Amino acid sequence: MNASSADSAPQDSEPHPDGKLTRARMLACALEMVDREGIDKLSMRGLARALGRDPMSLYRHATNKADLLDGVAETVLTELTVDSTDTDWIAQLRAVARQFRRIALTHPHVVPLLVTRPLATPLALRPRGTLRPLEDILALLTQAGFSGADALHIYRALFGFLHGHILNELQEIVEKPEETDDLLRLGLHRLPIHEFPHLRGLASVLAAYDGAAELERGLDILLAGLQSVTTPAI
Amino acid sequence: MNASSADSAPQDSEPHPDGKLTRARMLACALEMVDREGIDKLSMRGLARALGRDPMSLYRHATNKADLLDGVAETVLTELTVDSTDTDWIAQLRAVARQFRRIALTHPHVVPLLVTRPLATPLALRPRGTLRPLEDILALLTQAGFSGADALHIYRALFGFLHGHILNELQEIVEKPEETDDLLRLGLHRLPIHEFPHLRGLASVLAAYDGAAELERGLDILLAGLQSVTTPAI
DNA sequence: GACTGATGTCTACACCGTAGGTCTACGCAT
DNA sequence: ATGCGTAGACCTACGGTGTAGACATCAGTC
User: In its keyword annotation, does this UniProt entry include Cytoplasm (chains A, B) (predicted)?
Assistant: First the structure.
């Protein structure tokens, strides 16, 4: 039956995994591929190949490639859970921040999606899972006595910082990990000494970057500031 | 002569603007297109069409599409100037921050490039124009008496905040600007009331977002913190 | 059985990035 | 003048891409 047409062989990993193709399964596979090879290596055809399906079947579960990417971002962000009943809002925000960092480090290739996708879509049209953390944090903070405006403010401050931090941390790419000398390891020797004297001088400092510590320091400052400036009515 | 082949007509805006095609001219045109239609509408072929050249000529001035995108990001970032001789480092950092915001708002479609491109490239391989602000700020701060490590720290804090802020501010997309009611203007009525009660309640606050003020407030806090925590030896 | 809707498949189209080759024009040593 | 090297522009062609549109299959309901 079904002699394969002129296209490539349709079965790679598995012909038809077991049952139907669901959006969740599709997104999981897409996420896996993105984690492995980066965003722009993800194509509808490639994804279909990995799923053992026809490329066009994907369009039953995502209207678009854009929609698929939204789905991937949403999937990742669902790993972020906020306990909006926690009475210690500071501790809870700290926990959220750590979770977010962990997620970003686990899926570095998805981070561009996370920070970039919302720029194209009005808030209300964004995937619901993407808005969940916002709503939950608003709940947490109003529960703690903040006004809606202040709660929104705090959310923005936290995620602004978080996004900034993650973008900083993910830039730490080592060019030749096997090299022992910091200057060579980071490839800084390429930079002309006359043009970038300070930067070249910082090889050892750059090499010693500690993202986790950095996050904690930033959180200390930020949360202390938030607590002192706008203390909720108890 | 030269009856056009099966491809499209090669002359659109101008056949051969005036002289040779330079990298600068190419990048300027690319930036213009990105500003107008967004990043993923930019194609080598489209760019060539806009320049009135053959698509392949572009490869004389950019090895890659990736290289071209790097060039666009670099072009934009060159608008950012740091006066590293300024003795008032706080005022200078503030000025840099304001410039950066202005640039980001002028070229919103380039922001994804700005924040996303460095994630893929080791620091030393990034376009030089991209590293200029970093080097200059390091110069500014060491001039002011900071150690290299502290200077780097301050740079990171500033740009972390800046990136976070811009990503926040650019998310403020109004769905239907002509609508007067905030809830409808932002499209928030789509969100199910039971799932997003807090978010829906914040329509007026969301609508009143003021990016410039927000930036200043953040800068006040950040710069005050930096000044008090790590004051340079005078 | 007939109908309906969801799901999968096939074909086809317009477009993409770019490897490889060729044609032309110019600067420069001979 | 001659020849040569080189830089710029162009053409063709290949293998990919996202997805519209038509058709096929099947589950469940009347």
Answer: no
**Identity of the amino acid at A193:** I
Handedness of CA B173, B178, B183, B187 (dihedral sign): negative
Of B108, B167, B175, which Cα lies nearest the Cα of A116? B167
Element (H, E) at B165: helix B148-170
Residue of A nearest to B176 (CA): A122
Q: How many CB atoms lie within 10 A of CB A20?
A: 10
By the 10 Å C-beta count (0-12 exposed, 13-18 middle, 19+ buried), B56 is classed as exposed
A196, A219, A221, best to mutate vs chain B, most B CBs in 10 Å: A196
Can you give the distance from the CA of residue B14 to the C1' of nucleotide C7 in angstroms? 50
**Residue of A214, A104, A93 lying closest to A155 (CA atoms):** A93
pLDDT digit string, tens, across residues A152-169: 999 999 999 999 999 999
Rounded CA gap, A68 and A66, in Å?
Answer: 5
The predicted-structure confidence for B164-210, as pLDDT tens digits, reads as follows 999 999 998 888 888 889 899 998 999 999 999 999 999 999 999 99
The phi and psi torsions of A168 (rounded to 5 degrees) equal -60, -50
The H or E element spanning position A119 is none
Contacts of B135 in chain A (CB under 8 A): 195-199
Nearest residue, CB atoms, A202 vs list B38, B152, B218:
B152
Contact B191 A121 (CB under 8 A): no
Model confidence at B232: pLDDT above 70: no
CA nearest neighbour of A218 among B158, B92, B137: B158
Query: All domains of chain A, ordered by start, with CATH?
Result: 23-75 (1.10.10.60), 86-229 (1.10.357.10)
How many Å apart are CA B200 and CA B195, to the nearest integer?
A: 10
What integer is the mean pLDDT of A128-144?
97
Nucleotide nearest to B63 (CA to C1'): C18
B20 touches strand D (CB under 7 A): yes
pLDDT tens-digit map of A75-132: 999 999 999 999 999 999 999 999 999 999 999 999 999 999 999 899 999 999 999 9
pLDDT in tens, A169-179: 999 888 888 88
